[in-house]
Amino acid sequence: MTFDFPVADRYRGLATSPVKEIFALAARPDVVSFAGGIPDPALFDLDAVRRCYDWVLTHQGQRALQYGVTEGEAEMREQAAARMSRFLPTSADQVQITSGSQEGLFIAAQALLNEGDVILVESPTYLAAVQAFAAHGARIIGVPCDDHGVLPDALEAAIGEHSPAALYLIPSFQNPTGRTMPMSRREQVGEIVLRHRLALIEDDPYGDLRFSGEALAPIASLPGLSKQTLLMNSMSKLMSPGVRIGWTRAEGPIGQTLAVAKSAISMQSSVVDQLTVARYLETEDLEGHVAQVIDVYRHRRDAMADALSGRLPDSAHITYPEGGMFLWASLGSGINAQDMLADACDAGVAYLPGWSFFAQDPDFSTLRLSFVTHSPDVIAESMDRLVGVIDRTLEQPI
Amino acid sequence: MTFDFPVADRYRGLATSPVKEIFALAARPDVVSFAGGIPDPALFDLDAVRRCYDWVLTHQGQRALQYGVTEGEAEMREQAAARMSRFLPTSADQVQITSGSQEGLFIAAQALLNEGDVILVESPTYLAAVQAFAAHGARIIGVPCDDHGVLPDALEAAIGEHSPAALYLIPSFQNPTGRTMPMSRREQVGEIVLRHRLALIEDDPYGDLRFSGEALAPIASLPGLSKQTLLMNSMSKLMSPGVRIGWTRAEGPIGQTLAVAKSAISMQSSVVDQLTVARYLETEDLEGHVAQVIDVYRHRRDAMADALSGRLPDSAHITYPEGGMFLWASLGSGINAQDMLADACDAGVAYLPGWSFFAQDPDFSTLRLSFVTHSPDVIAESMDRLVGVIDRTLEQPI
Predict the structure, then answer these.
(1) At what angle do helices B100-112 and A254-266 cross, to 10 degrees?
(2) Subunit contact A270:B243, Cβ cutoff 8 A
(3) Which of A111, A182, B42, B302 has the fewest beta carbons under 10 Å from its own?
């Protein structure tokens, strides 16, 4: 006799998750994948990380293996606060350590969102964030954007129409588009957020991966905004995604609510990993390491942009990101990037179709290309193949 | 102008969490605490663990720092499956790795429970599990128990009355009571669960910490029950709570739902920690290590039981656990263990008041004592002081 577990409505009919499929796709051995946002493992600062694990287990071993603190270990909170204080004065007790940014997003949703609440997001936006919000029964409304991020008039209109509980933004080198909100746009958006007393979830995992130009301060650092923003950083893109260490900055009593949620979800994050990351930030040269990574990534972005330049259909629009990991192409009429993926994989190249990043009205001609994983030569050759697939697709009768 | 974040109904008015308060209490330097279920850090197998971290970072470093698999790294799933297979044949693909059992409980609640669903629990039961269920709006109904666990007639009646979505049990060395369901009771309960086609969440973090007698198979291993049980283990009590590695066994399509939930919550658990724990289980001597721990814990249980024997009021009932970490006392009439805690702390000894472990009808005379953290001498002296506090409390006019 078969038995079926009860399945909560939030997951009924969901056989799998888009993010999981990214990783499955990226693992196919016969395909050069630009689908996942996977750092190049050859660039990891492995010797330094091993040194830090060894130091922690030698000098703080009993503590590293013991239960820790829900909000995070003191050293890790101090180091996270110091990094955030480059742009926004932050004390350790305003920082909660999370198991990657993903847990930070899930905790924010647990703490803030009731079923049926509206959360406004950029259109398109990071799909794993949408998953975390959707798991709480939130209605996710995409706000129209241009190459400088969310459009102020559209944001104003969406607030008026939907009375949202929160706004979710990735202002720097956004996933999936690679676009960055300039300071003037941050100020316009911040003014609207302030005036409507709207809670802002500001996700900034890529901001330090800037290839050129000046670093931009987070929206949270604009006057009055720090107290109504949950600002999130992560070590995943700077040091290692495998250690799963991120953090959230919050002011006032909401920090306590985040801690109650964290306690229910996972009690605390790995103490070994927290102490090791704190040691790394204290004693190793993250800035120097990131400078090396940026240098490599910049060349790869150039290789990808050069290989595509002038070779996409006239109807195409492509971003030229100043940092981060992603380039985004809207190929325009005649192309369905989801349908084209099978041909691309047959040609040995994979990308991520863009439609899944839209909360509403998906643009099926879009695709996301990560430029960080492969060498410039592999990128150039793969983009040649991709251009060939696009050309063949356009030649087919519709 | 102040700003108040919206707070989801599930956390409204919850200023803190009971589990967090355990750890805060345990950290007071002037008090010998028996409140938390804190392993003695002097017993950690630190050299072996350091060896395993070093091996992983030397031989699997790039993989350890990279993104991993939502369900868990293959080696870790294999090792977890091998441990479970001692009692119940388990394949690696039936195992999901979680960031401690707490995340496993939260994921189970995410996957199974809608708001308003009833989940049956032992009365009393593990309060952090109740938190994970309550965060999903579940109604938590405690089923009456005796020293052998949940009472079959009471379970039958509760199923009839509440049509529960699931039943949550800790059959071995339960938290908080230390009690164990004998095989005959497991069979009676299993028969009821089968007949009512009820989903069972079986939490077994302590089962391997048995001081005497035969190991008991989990309820999930009884005929027909594996397919309707989510069975959970953890390394927290055997190796280290700080590494946050636990796992859930599931058969059939519910495993996919658990993975979707895990992906939304935290993407995956620390790859470094997973590979290290797998290496530890593969190459080090966990059984030998646990045998040493058991030997120490047995003496400590004896020290605590001896120090209390014959010295509690006639109305008191105390458990004599054959394993695990906890001893449970119901002091009976005239004592409110919550009110008495301040006097106990003034006398330099802390316990955990038992009322918070009850879903309904709390017995305020109960308290939980962890016997694993301190030496027999410290236990004996502290129990002397606790007996003094109890005696003085009984002498006070009510």
Answers:
(1) 90
(2) yes
(3) B42
Domain A9-44+287-395 has CATH 3.40.50.720: no
Q: Distance between CA A144 and CA A11 in Å, rounded?
A: 28
Contact A264 B36 (CB under 8 A): no
For A185-228, write each residue's pLDDT tens digit. 999 999 999 999 999 999 999 999 999 999 999 999 999 999 99
Torsion sign across C-alpha atoms A176, A179, A182, A188 = negative
Q: What is the ipTM of this complex?
A: 0.96
Question: Which residues have C-beta within 8 Å of that of residue A371, sequence separation ≥ 6?
Answer: A34, A297, A300, A301, A303, A304, A325, A326, A327, A379
Give the fold, CATH level 3, of B46-283. Answer: Aspartate Aminotransferase; domain 2 (3.40.640)
Q: Residue A33: is it exposed, middle or buried by C-beta count within 10 angstroms (0-12/13-18/19+)? A: buried
Angle, helix B152-162 to helix B183-195, in steps of 10 degrees: 20
Chain B positions in Cβ-Cβ contact with residue A49 (cut-off 8 Å): 57, 61, 65
Nearest to A14 among B20, B103, B260 (CB): B260
Contact criterion met (CB < 8 Å) for A39 and B66: yes
**Mutation target among A14, A113, A118, A244 for the B interface, most CBs of B within 10 A:** A244
CATH architecture under which domain A60-283 falls? 3-Layer(aba) Sandwich (3.40)
